[in-house]
Amino acid sequence: MQPAPSLNIDLLILGGGPAGLALAIMAARSRLAVTLLERSRYQHPRTGETFGGELAALLQEVGLWDAVRNVPRLPFRGQRSSWGEFAQIERNAMFNPYGEGWHVDRAAFDQALASAAVQSGVNVLTGCAATSVEPADAAWSVQLTDGQRLSARYVVDAGGRDSNAWPAASRPGQWVRMDRMMAWVARLGAPATKPEPVLQIEAVQNGWWYAAPQPDGGLLVSLMTDVDLLAAGPRETLPAAFMAALAESTHTAALCAGARLAGEPWAARADSGFRHPDHGEAWCTIGDAAMACDPLAGDGVVRAIRSARRAAQRVSQALQRPIAVTPEVDSGSAYPPLREAFIEFLHQRARHYAREGRFPDSLFWQRRQPLDLRAARIFLDPQSRLVCANPSPGPQSLAHVEALLPYSALRPLLARLREPVVAHEALAALRAKAPLEDRRLIVAVQELIGLDVIRVLEN
Ligand SMILES: Cc1cc2nc3c(=O)[nH]c(=O)nc-3n(C[C@H](O)[C@H](O)[C@H](O)COP(=O)(O)OP(=O)(O)OC[C@H]3O[C@@H](n4cnc5c(N)ncnc54)[C@H](O)[C@@H]3O)c2cc1C
Description:
There is one protein chain. With about 450 residues, this protein is an alpha+beta fold. The protein is about 30% helix and about 25% strand. The protein is built from 13 helices and 23 strands. It has helices at about 20-30, 55-60, 65-70, 105-120, 240-250, 250-255, 300-320, 340-355, 365, 395-400, 405-415, 425-435, 440-450, and strands spanning about 5-15, 35-40, 50, 75, 80, 90, 100-105, 125, 130-135, 140-145, 150-155, 175, 180-190, 200-205, 205-215, 220-225, 265-270, 275, 285, 290, 385-390, 420, 455. Bound molecules: flavin-adenine dinucleotide (FAD). Flavin-adenine dinucleotide binds next to helix 1, strand 2, strand 3 and helix 7.
């Protein structure tokens, strides 16, 4: 059999959400040959549907406004939240310097960007993914699920949080996963009372609800919780379980009164995390694939477009000279890693979640309410020897430590300490998995000592 002919391109983008599509359009307008792989056909509903006023300004700045101006939308006139107290507090978009934003049907928004990408000359392959991405001579050799083979000088991973769009066998970097947040989402039909065009948020025992009006008159409603706190059960029971959970809320249930499910509820990952490292000479990650934040931040699409804009510059600079096609990190890179931005996000997250004190026994809230890092005293002797005293601590005892330390680093730390390890070596190993501030890591280990999960051995 003849091997399939190979297509030579400048840029391959893995993932067609707002980040990947915005980059594709900008790069094609700079006359690069671009192919974008999107595993879906935009046929399923998506979350991430409420945009602040700054998105319109940003889209105009990067020349994408025309691509989405006809997407059906409702105005987003503000936010109403019950957070820290039962009463709802209103923040009106009137006081936003950019004015009001929009509530959109997010699948339609992404689809509109995909059509604009095609019109700009991007080769958009939907229903398609990469099965291998390997360095070969001066380009990446990429095998696609449809049997095609590509040769690309630069590859960008835009596959969303903890992206698997770049196949694991050669995927560079690691996903530093801070928590286990999931969104349990459903679309509802029109409620009895027409909703105002505001985003509604309500903190509850095991997480928080949000509800956004949709252009078709219905609502998109989601419970944000942790995967181990999510009601599990056979698929056929989930619609009733979702409606039962909704009925336990107060403001959200009132908003949704009279509305029926429009399709099955679905679960989506919503953990915060970042890829480390996030770029090399001939590859980078963008959007949520580079850094994903708690949806409470509400600015994921703005961040995705901004990161596409930075990447457009990076790619065009990189392609002007011969580049090393390797998954290795570019040590002389002019671009800072995302670590600092993620640390800043963690401080902001702690400030937001600290404002809710009504559920002190809830694992969900404890896991997001760390102790004050600056006030904590450091007492750990770097030469002391540490050993794990309890390899399977209960979720309750670890909750506050999880607020400090990435979930993806905690279990490996305890596994490493099955044998005694000198403290500074244990911390160095921890930092490799959790590249965050030194103080955060030391304080977290001290907390584990206080909980008798880790023990300091007498010399
Ligand atoms: C519940 C929830 C609510 C949110 N609400 C808001 C909000 O109101 N406003 C806001 O601005 N942000 C919100 N966000 C965040 C926002 O959705 C994201 O930040 C934004 O979508 C990131 O865009 P992206 O292009 O980086 O990734 P994504 O939008 O995740 O796009 C990734 C794309 O890659 C594709 N893909 C995945 N794997 C593969 C593969 N193997 N091969 C090929 N393609 C692949 C996916 O199909 C998808 O099209 C919310 C997030 C969640 C979870």
